């Protein structure tokens, strides 16, 4: 079990949805929080709601200077949870270069920017905790997800490499791959959303995983089995299931 009381965690992407709910969960557990997003207004209301100590640092994960400045302002932390993400749906036939690049710039490169600012101090201290938020879509490409699935797959691979490199050290790396969560990200999603979860329920799943020493958690469990098994399906079978028109 991980000790939470008195720890200091930086939540990147905390203003809405899963990030906001996880902030409440960690605060109730005794964690001092630094909450970040692009704008301060929703963060200010979040800090007012939290039962424990919390501060605000704005950040744009798509901007290297903003990430560096934010990390300097945050200072020493015990852990970081990366929750920032975009979920724009784009079909190959309707490729929008700017939007596709933006998806990668936030979901994958944004995570790399933040990690790049915090990893050396953690390695030097031989202590730290990094949690990356992926998606069930990371296991294999999905319809209209040329930017989203690929960026989340890259994030999953990044987490796997980091976990392997840091195995046996005092720096823990964990990955969570959630399914559908009731957030604004789903507002423009025309596809069915089976087993969709509330942000609070998803945050509890993430927190429970964070208390363990395990690397990876995909949820909801039953739904996640389909995606994990899909990696072993022949392409024709996989596309018949997921890409039928």
Task: Explain this structure.
The protein has helices spanning 17-28, 41-49, 64-74, 97-107, 109-125, 148-166, 199-210, 221-230, 235-242, and strands at residues 8-12, 32-36, 54-56, 79-82, 128-133, 171-178, 216-219. By secondary structure, the chain is α/β, with parallel strands linked by helices. It has a seven-stranded parallel sheet, with helices on both faces. Helix 7 (199-210) links the parallel strand 6 (171-178) and strand 7. The longest helix has 19 residues, at 148-166.
> Secondary-structure element order, as H and E?
EHEHEHEHHEHEHEHH
- Give the averaged pLDDT, no decimals: 93
Which segments are poorly predicted (pLDDT under 50) over 5 or more consecutive residues?
Answer: none
Backbone shape: globular
Number of separate strands: 7
The major beta sheet can be summarized as: 7 strands, parallel
Strand residue percentage: 5-15%
Distance between the first and last residues' Cα: 47 Å
How large is the count of helical segments? 9
What would you report as the Rg, rounded to the nearest angstrom? 18 Å
Q: Going across the major beta sheet, what is the strand order?
A: 3-2-1-4-5-6-7
Percent in helix: 40-55%
Structural class: alpha/beta
Summarize the structure.
The chain is an alpha/beta fold.
What key phrases describe this protein's structure?
245 residues, alpha/beta, seven-stranded parallel beta sheet, 14% strand, globular
């Amino acid at each position: 079990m991980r000790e939470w009381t008195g720890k200091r965690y930086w939540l990147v992407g905390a203003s809405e949805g899963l990030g906001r709910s996880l902030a409440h969960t960690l605060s109730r557990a005794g964690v001092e929080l630094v909450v970040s997003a692009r704008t301060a207004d929703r963060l200010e209301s979040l800090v007012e709601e939290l039962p424990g100590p919390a501060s605000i640092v704005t950040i744009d994960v798509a901007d290297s200077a903003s990430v560096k400045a934010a990390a300097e302002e945050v200072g020493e932390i015990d852990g970081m949870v990366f929750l920032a993400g975009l979920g724009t749906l784009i079909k190959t036939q309707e490729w929008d270069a700017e939007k596709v690049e933006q998806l990668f710039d936030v979901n994958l490169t944004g995570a790399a920017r933040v990690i790049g600012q915090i990893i050396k101090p953690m390695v030097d201290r031989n202590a730290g905790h990094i949690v990356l938020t992926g998606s069930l879509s990371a296991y294999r490409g999905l319809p209209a997800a040329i930017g989203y699935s690929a960026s989340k797959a890259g994030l999953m691979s990044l987490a796997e490499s980091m976990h392997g490199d840091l195995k046996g050290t005092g720096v823990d790396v964990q990955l969570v791959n959630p399914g559908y969560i009731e957030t604004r990200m789903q507002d423009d999603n025309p596809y069915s959303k089976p087993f969709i979860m509330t942000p609070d329920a998803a945050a509890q799943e993430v927190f429970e995983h964070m208390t363990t020493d395990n690397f990876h958690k995909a949820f909801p469990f039953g739904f996640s089995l389909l995606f994990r098994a899909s990696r072993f399906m022949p392409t024709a079978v996989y596309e018949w299931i997921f890409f039928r028109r």
